[in-house]
């Protein structure tokens, strides 16, 4: 059945449907930031909205092409180019990039595609999708397949990657069902030829649909739900694929957090703020999990299999420091969120008691110093537990004066190094510590070395050592970019080249204070997330035990250090420690200032680029909006000029077609059952004139006769202008 003008879909409904398509397409873009190293995602989202808006206006294809192309170039300019926009140097730079990358595509050299070219391809994909979504959602009214693909895409990402789709899946459900309901409604209207006139100005019908979908969503969200009934297949799938590609030096996308496999360190990771536990305690602490002693050149392993010894939770035999070290008794309560399962006990330095686990078996591996809990010989993850611990305070002068030799077992186990370690690592360690005469100052010299020699803390663009390349050597002499694993491993290895026993420690930093003074007492509450997963260094001091050091840029040592002063010789001894302290402390501070300045500079540049790009896109969008609103006036002016300069039948036909569009735009469309003359009579009756009849007669004369120059274009042009002015008045 052919549709009359009154049964054509109102613009408001097609707009709502297309906007729903835009929102669903954005759900495909949001995970990109979590899964790749893509930055400035907001710029791509803005360009997406811009392209969809241009498509929605349905302006001439060549105007749409120019606007979208200009927006694409503008985005690339803001992200990658330093030259003046569209200058000769700018164009040459762009052409050179495109030529180089096309050559790489031809040779299938995918890894050498530049970020600019990848962004260009991404923007072109967005451009294409703005048309395809319009075609699927509005023109064809077939959206079910895209909705299903969106659900499948998000579900796969949520299952197999670090992307959390808890909120995304709810958004998709709401938008999808609204879009499906509206699409079904529009198809029924067309099939039954039901008139839209009564709701042409407002989407009245859409509100009941939205209400039903939102109510269904709320009921589904609030309703009780069963726990998963089937075993999670993901660990099996991942374990089956474990090792695939591991020999090629690639680490893929990693998520920050505690993990047990440290055999191959390196590579970038993405931040994850998922809460792991809350700690209620007197002050910020390191939260220990385990240590490792064998450096392989690529990562860390333990020299022996775990040997667990059952512990009395009220009297643990886990001691990392000597009884001569000053301590202060503290307490801590750890409550786990359930978001992350860590099958080991997390504890502070000096832990003595672990309470609230009397019915469980507490086991200690003396080698790695990891604690686990079991119930009926099955490993059990605790929800919460309380601890009492003796927080150590190390006296710096006492550490400096340590002269006793190391026990043989400590020296043998914790000075191990691979035979393949390059000599220049040891040479650098000796150079750094050449002026120091004791173990503490040597450790401090290496600890502060990273803050003065061009090293940068970064979690992205961190390289993975190639086959035959040492992890520490690469970091110290080539990349100088990395995170805690790079810094802590490098410090341990350099200390071992000096025959100083050192080991690698894993756990969490103190977290972020979220409650000050819990219950009105001196306890504070800290939230520890995956982003607080950390590694640091412990150095052995005879007679003192294992002392923590923190070489990672931007991190502070959470252990308490004091300078002990002899009261009888206070005037003589007070100055040197202060002088030493003055020498030691400003170095990290200066680095922090340099890092802060560098970060501020980068932030400022990003902010400027961001505003530059956003302002440009806003200007282009505003121009597009103005053009869209004034499109009929612009076309009227252009056709008026053509009628003056090109007085021919083709120009008049274009003018007559525009007149029909103008009438339809003003609510007087030609019905498919009407002839042109019937329509002209209707318009003349409406405006009480005979102009439309004269224009139509001339149009038919041009259309159906072969006589050239049979009409007076000048006279028709004047009549045409007069009628359009009447229509607009």
From TrEMBL:
Keyword Hydrolase: no
Domain of life: Bacteria
Domain Transglutaminase-like: 476-553
Ranges that cross the membrane: 12-30, 36-54, 61-81, 116-136, 143-163, 169-186, 202-223, 610-632
Region Disordered: start-end pairs: 569-600
Record key words, sorted: Membrane, Transmembrane, Transmembrane helix
Protein name in the entry: Transglutaminase-like domain-containing protein
Taxonomic lineage from the root: Bacteria, Bacillati, Bacillota, Bacilli, Bacillales
């Amino acid at each position: 059945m052919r549709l009359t003008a009154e049964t054509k879909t109102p613009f408001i409904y097609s707009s709502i449907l297309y906007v729903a398509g835009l929102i669903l397409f954005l759900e495909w873009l949001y995970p990109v930031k979590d899964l790749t190293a893509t930055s400035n995602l907001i710029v791509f989202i803005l360009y997406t909205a811009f392209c969809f808006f241009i498509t929605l206006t349905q302006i001439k294809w060549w105007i749409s092409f120019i606007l979208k192309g200009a927006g694409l170039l503008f985005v690339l300019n803001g992200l990658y180019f330093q030259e003046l926009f569209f200058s000769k140097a700018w164009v040459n730079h762009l052409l050179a990039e495109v030529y180089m990358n096309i050559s790489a595509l031809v040779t299938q050299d995918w890894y050498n595609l530049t970020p600019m070219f990848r962004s260009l391809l991404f923007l072109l994909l967005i451009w294409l999708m703005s048309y395809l979504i319009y075609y699927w959602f509005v023109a064809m009214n077939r959206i079910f397949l895209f909705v299903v693909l969106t659900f499948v895409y998000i579900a796969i990402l949520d299952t197999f990657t670090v992307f959390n789709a808890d909120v995304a899946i709810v958004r998709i459900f709401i938008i999808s069902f609204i879009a499906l309901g509206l699409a079904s409604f529009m198809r029924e209207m067309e099939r039954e030829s039901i008139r839209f006139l009564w709701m042409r100005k407002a989407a009245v019908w859409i509100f009941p649909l939205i209400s039903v979908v939102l109510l269904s969503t709320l009921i589904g969200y609030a309703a009780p739900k069963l726990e998963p009934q089937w075993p999670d297949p993901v660990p099996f799938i991942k374990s089956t694929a474990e090792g695939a590609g591991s020999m090629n030096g690639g680490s893929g996308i990693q998520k920050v957090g505690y993990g047990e496999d440290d055999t191959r360190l390196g590579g970038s990771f993405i931040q994850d703020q998922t809460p792991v536990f809350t700690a209620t305690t007197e002050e910020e602490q390191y939260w220990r999990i385990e240590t490792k002693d064998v450096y392989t050149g690529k990562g860390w392993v333990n020299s022996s299999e775990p040997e667990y010894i059952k512990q009395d939770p009220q009297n643990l035999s886990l001691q990392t420091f000597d009884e001569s070290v000053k301590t202060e008794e503290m307490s801590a309560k750890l409550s786990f969120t359930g978001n992350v399962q860590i099958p080991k006990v997390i504890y502070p330095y000096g832990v003595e008691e672990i309470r609230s686990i009397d019915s469980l078996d507490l086991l200690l591996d003396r080698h790695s110093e990891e604690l686990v809990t079991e119930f009926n010989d099955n490993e059990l993850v605790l929800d919460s537990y309380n601890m009492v611990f003796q927080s150590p305070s190390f006296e710096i002068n006492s550490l400096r004066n340590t002269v006793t030799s190391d026990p043989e077992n400590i020296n043998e186990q914790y000075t191990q190094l691979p035979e393949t370690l390059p000599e220049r690592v040891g040479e650098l360690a000796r150079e750094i510590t050449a002026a120091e005469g004791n173990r503490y100052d040597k450790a401090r010299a290496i600890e502060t070395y990273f803050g003065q020699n061009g090293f940068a803390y970064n979690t992205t663009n961190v390289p993975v050592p190639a086959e035959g390349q040492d992890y520490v050597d690469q970091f110290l002499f080539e990349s100088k970019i990395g995170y805690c694993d790079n810094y802590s491993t490098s410090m341990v290895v350099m200390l071992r080249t000096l025959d100083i026993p050192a080991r690698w420690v894993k756990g969490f930093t103190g977290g972020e204070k979220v409650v000050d003074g819990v219950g009105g007492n001196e306890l504070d509450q800290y939230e520890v997330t995956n982003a607080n997963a950390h590694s640091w260094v412990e150095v052995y001091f005879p007679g003192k035990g294992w002392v923590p050091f923190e070489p990672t840029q931007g991190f502070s040592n959470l252990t308490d250090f004091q300078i002990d002063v002899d009261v009888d010789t206070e005037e003589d001894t007070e100055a040197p420690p202060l002088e030493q302290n003055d020498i030691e402390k400003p170095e990290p501070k200066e680095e922090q200032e340099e890092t802060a300045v560098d970060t501020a500079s980068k932030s400022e540049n990003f902010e400027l680029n961001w505003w530059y790009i956003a302002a440009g896109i806003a200007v282009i969008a505003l121009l597009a909006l103005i053009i869209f609103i004034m499109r009929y006036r612009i076309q009227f002016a252009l056709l008026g000029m053509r009628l003056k300069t090109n007085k021919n039948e083709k120009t008049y036909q274009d003018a007559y077609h525009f007149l029909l569009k103008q009438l339809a735009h003003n609510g007087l469309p030609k019905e498919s059952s009407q002839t042109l003359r019937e329509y002209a009579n209707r318009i003349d009756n409406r405006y009480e004139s005979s102009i439309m009849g004269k224009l139509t007669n001339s149009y038919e004369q041009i259309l159906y006769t072969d006589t050239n120059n049979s009409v007076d274009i000048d006279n028709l042009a004047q009549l045409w202008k007069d009628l359009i002015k009447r229509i607009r008045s």
